[in-house]
Amino acid sequence: MSLGKDHELVNLFASGSALVFGLIWMFFGNQIINSLLPVQNQNIFYYFFSGVIFSLACVGLYGFMRTILCFTEFMVGHDNLNAQLYENLLSEEDEGVFLKNKNGIYKIISPVAMQVLKLENKQVVGQTDEDIHKYATANKIIHEDQRVLEFGESVYWETYITTSRGNEAYLCKKFPCRDSKNRVTGIIGVCKNISQLKKSQNANRHMEDRYRNLFNKLPYPVLVIDSSSLLPFTFNSAMNNLLGYEKEEFSRMRMSLHIEADYLNDFRDSITELNSSHGGEFETHLITKNRDVLNVTGYAQEIIIEDKAYLHMMLYDNTETKKSTDILIGSELKYRSLFEHANDAIIIVSTNSLNIIDANEIAISFLGYMRDDLLLMSIYDLDSSVNHALTQEKITDLEIYNHALYEQDIKNRKGEKQSVEINAHKLNYGNEDVYQFVIRNISKRKETEAALKSSESRYRQMFESNMAIKLVIDPDNFHIEDANPAAAEFYGYSIEELKGMDLAQINILSRDKLNTLIKQTREQNLGFYSCPHRLSNGEIRFVEVRDGPMEIEGRQLFYSIIHDVTASKEAENQVLVASKMFDYSTDAVMLINDKNKVVSVNYAFTQITGYQQSEIQNKSPEIILASHDATLLNKNVLESIDDSGQWKGEIWHRLKDGQSRPLSTSINSIRNENTNVSSYVVMLTPRHTQSIEQDNQVHFVELTELPNKSLFVDRLQNAIDRAQRNKNRLGIILIDPKNFSDINAQFGYDLGDQLLKAISKRLKYNTRDSDTISHFSSDDFAVLIEDLGDIQQMGIVAQKLLSTLSEAYQTSEHTIDLEIAMGISIYPDDGNQADSLIARAQTALLTAQYFKGSHFELTSASMNHNAKMWLQTEANLHTALRNNEFFVSFMPQIDTSTNTIDSMEALVRWNHPQQGCLLPAKFLPGAQQSGFIGAIGINVIDMALKDYRTWLDLDLPIPRLTLNICYSQIDTDLAQILIEKCDKYNIDYQRIGLEFSEKGYAQTTDSQRAVLHQIQSNNFHICIDDFGSDNSSLNCLLHCTVTEIKIDPEFIAKTRESLEAKNLLTGIVSLCKSQNIQIIAEGIETELDRDYLNDFDIHHMQGYLFSQPLDSKSVQKYVKRITQKK
User: Fold this and answer.
1) Using CA atoms, how far apart are residues 471 and 486, in angstroms rounded to an integer?
2) 240 — pLDDT class (breaks 50, 70, 90)
3) Are both 709 and 818 inside the same structural domain?
């Protein structure tokens, strides 16, 4: 057994002493014996001690040599062990190491190893495990060390420690340290951090468990097969359920046993093709356990499991789908026809994204959006509420019950609320489930219900009061069902006597006259009617009666609230008015008070003049006169009334549609008890006695109920007069179904009449309320379009009508296709009289009839070219949005005083397939006209913010992103869109600026400016572009809150030539400083421009001097280059 180093020093001392004694005895032993012993004993003792000392010298020599060799292990061997340690660890990548010699003494240990072995703050080097650890731990370690030293084994273990980074896992290993002769000279220990490996293993284990669970729960059949033997490797329960086998039974069967014989070779070929292409779609026929044949399609993908290729197959049973294909095709055609020609608005919504994927023309007209804009919206975008709770609830109902019927307030494009009834269903649309929302406008019904609830509420409050006289009446027999104490007191009957009493016992008017009076009151929207009532003592009292419907215990009754107005002077006049109205009820009657204001009119007045009481009440009676300068109660009229109490004559009356006609007129005065004139009764009689129905027969076509040619020409001339005054354009479209005579000959005139009605209906649905539609002749129609913006707008309207009218017409027995020709003329381009405009339109119509199919023509080649170019632009814009052809470039804005970037301005570009890169001036006007500007704007905002987020993640110093916004984009949705997009990319609102042209900003309405204030309240910046290009510049600064303005380059150029312009620029700079508005100079191309503007204290600039427009990656390089220059 080897001793420690201290023991070897003792051995060295003893061995050396023995050798010293041996040498002394060798040289001085004889002398010592001679001096100490007698002569006779000297020889004996000499040899005896010589033998003993020789033995000691031999032992000492052995010990000395042994000690020297031991010291060699400790001293010289120490370096050898270090060398062996490094040699053994050359291929290891470890964080902690330690080294022991064969005696278990630690020679080297790293700080990480001390931390992992929990030996911090201990003296380790030069110590054994027995010195460091407790008995049990030391014995365990010594036993492991013996395995390493004696058998050359490696010992592994894992341990966990707590560091500043949290709990970390380490894998530790002990293995032999060998010299160049492969002899074991010690023990090496290494410790490696495996925390990341542990996390990855846990994640993989979790993903494997999730995959296994998901695989078993998949609702559709999944099968993994050996592509050579066609034996199942694994499958889910849906697969064996599909074929009707038990799991164990199915697992032993080849797939060829489940394939119909006629399709087996095709299936094998499909497997071969799938193997060669590593995956793809397939179709086959499977046979179930019950011998049923299933038509199955699916997708297969090659996967590798344990170095062997398998096919992973997902299957779909479309047997029923195949059977119903023909039925679906027929029903789809019928549904589409009903969808397009329904009377209600219909929108189709995706069940996955809740985005609108289709809408009929009624929906587009009702909501006010262009079709393409509507198809970019979600069903939530129509909800006027903030949290969309009702919509979410009904979507849930649709998923559960497949149907929902509810009422809701939605908003149109202008942000106006509309009360609608929505009948929603979940149905199959093509190959996917969708939600169909049938929307019916019930705004008017809601108003009526609100009025009814209001009147019921008033009734309940008044019936509970003893001050008002109240009766409840059965409308079937006019018997009094109930009365309150005030009624009993007023009429002089008890409540029991009033109950069951016939109303005729207290009302002097006959039943017929009372019905007439009530009918007139309701038709004229009067709140009450006046009549005489008889009390129990025979006294006649004049009363005002206010009544309305009510329901008591399921019975439909009506209530009457009665006010005694006999004693009131105001009531006396009203009684006289009522009497006069009945006296002259065969003619139009209008009551005027002494202040020349209309008090009331009768039913005949409404029918003859077209004015409702609500439209004329409390207004001057001159509203009905044809001449604006005429006075009804003029001096001659009043003098005649004073002399004879009456005036008769003729007035010219202006109808609501603008026509004028004479009316025979009689005006009578009504005097009060003081003989003073309190009112005038005006009776009007048409000079020609034809009825309203006769008038309609003259001006309207009975079949289609549309204005005829005569009325159309009259309205056209009036429209021309208005357009001249307002300096507007208008247009007319003449429409001719080219093959209509052939259809009449083939199918008969009854079907022809049905087509004419259908055409008129489609025209009504696809034009504005302000437009005039006319049944111009036997099978021709005309449309008058007022307030035209430009000729291109007329082309868009014509194309819309052309497309709508050319769609197939579905009758009960036939499907009819019409070819439509249209001729268009424009005021004032084609004339300033109705006759000339119609003549020019007829000429264009003749030209259109020569073209095959449906076609429209304007009066000149240039007009046709411009209109059709705009239509082509609209189609191209639609394609560009679908193909993502728009992209964004960025223009830096520089602070020249610090040479830093202020902002990046986003500029939209169109990568046109034929024309290359187009600038905004080439396509934005068309986008605004066609309504695509909203969709393009949303795409640009999203792309620009996405790039900005990338720059921010790269820590590029770009304080702000500026977005160009067209004034037509400023609507109630703009703020929400900006907020949603910024939240999507986690961008602070104050980093975003919105830029509007000065001219565009000047055109904004009050509601649009309110939207801008809302945007600014969310910390978005507002910038006015092209400042100085319009005469409203200073007005914009004074009336809007902006943070930046951009000076127009042309205005800057003027300052070099004009002292006035130069002084104005100085004033603008001073004004902006006082208002804390930053000025940016545009179009800076030279250093002279920069220095010139610096003299005006303008340091924020943009232009080609600094950079051309850049793509996103070029921006990154540009910013880094600018930053390095600093």
Assistant:
1) 10
2) confident
3) yes
What does the alpha-carbon distance between residue 263 and residue 644 come to, in Å, rounded to a whole number? 108
Are residues 195 and 98 part of one domain?
yes
Cα–Cα nearest to 941, from 988, 971, 977, 973: 977
pLDDT in tens, 372-408: 888 889 999 999 888 888 999 999 888 888 888 888 9
Question: Which residue would you say has higher pLDDT here, 1029 or 390?
Answer: 390
Sheet holding 222-225, edge to edge: 232-235, 222-225, 308-317, 293-305, 279-287
Q: Give CA separation, 994 vs 854, 902, 978, 1024, 1043, in Å.
A: 44, 14, 10, 9, 10
Residue 1064 included in any domain? yes
Q: Are 605 and 591 in contact (CB under 8 A)?
A: no
Whole-number Å distance between alpha carbons of 360 and 1110: 42
Give the residue-averaged pLDDT of 433-455. 76
Tell me which of 116-120, 908-912, 927-931, 979-983 is least confident. 927-931
Q: Is the backbone peptide bond immediately before 828 cis, with ω within 30 degrees of 0?
A: yes
- Tens digits of per-residue pLDDT, 350-370? 988 899 988 988 888 889 998
- Are 194 and 230 contained in the same domain? no
CB within 8 Å of 537: residues ≥ 6 apart: 492
| Burial of 199 per CB tally in 10 Å (0-12, 13-18, 19+) | exposed
**Amino acid present at 376:** L
Q: pTM of the prediction?
A: 0.35
* DSSP letter assigned to residue 970: -
3-state helix, strand, coil in the chain (%, to 5): 45, 25, 25
Q: Is the dihedral of CA 247, 248, 252, 257 positive or negative?
A: negative
Q: What is the pLDDT of residue 74?
A: 41
Contacts of 1024 (CB under 8 A, 6+ apart): 995, 996, 997, 998, 1001, 1036, 1040, 1042, 1044, 1045, 1046
Q: What is the DSSP string of 1073-1093?
A: HHTT-EEEE----SHHHHHHH
Contacts of residues 114-118 at CB distance under 8 Å and 24 or more positions apart, as own/partner, are 115/161, 115/163, 116/159, 116/161, 116/170, 116/172, 116/191, 117/172, 117/191, 118/161
Range of the domain at 103: 93-199
What is the model's pLDDT at position 561? 83
Pick the last residue of a domain from 322, 351, 370.
322
The pLDDT of residue 687 is: 62
**Beta strands per DSSP E along 897-1000:** 900-912, 916-918, 961-964, 992-997
Strands 106-109 and 432-441: unpaired
pLDDT band at 929 (very low <50, low <70, confident <90, very high): low
DSSP 830: T
Judged against a pLDDT cut of 50, whether residue 2 lies above it is answered with: no
Cα separation, 159 vs 601, whole angstroms? 101
For residue 296, what is the domain's CATH number?
3.30.450.20
Asked if residue 207 is part of any domain, the answer here is no
Judge whether 608 lies within some domain. yes
Phi, psi of 662 (to 5 degrees): -80, 150
Q: How far apart are CA 339 and CA 341, in angstroms?
A: 6
pLDDT for the residue numbered 983: 93
**How distant, in Å, are the alpha carbons of 19, 202, 991 from that of 170?**
55, 16, 47
The bridge status of strand 961-964 relative to strand 232-235 is: unpaired
Total number of domains in the chain: 8
Distances (CA, A) of 1004 to 780, 968, 996, 1036: 41, 8, 10, 11
Q: Is residue 1011 part of a domain?
A: yes
pLDDT above 70 as % of the chain = 81
Q: Is the pLDDT of residue 442 over 90?
A: no
Please report the pLDDT score of residue 454 as a whole number: 52
Asked whether the predicted pLDDT for residue 760 surpasses 60, the reply is yes
Query: Which one of 5-19, 212-226, 1027-1041 scores highest in mean pLDDT?
Result: 212-226
CB < 8 Å & 24+ apart, contacts of 618-623 = 620/596, 621/590, 621/592, 621/596, 621/682
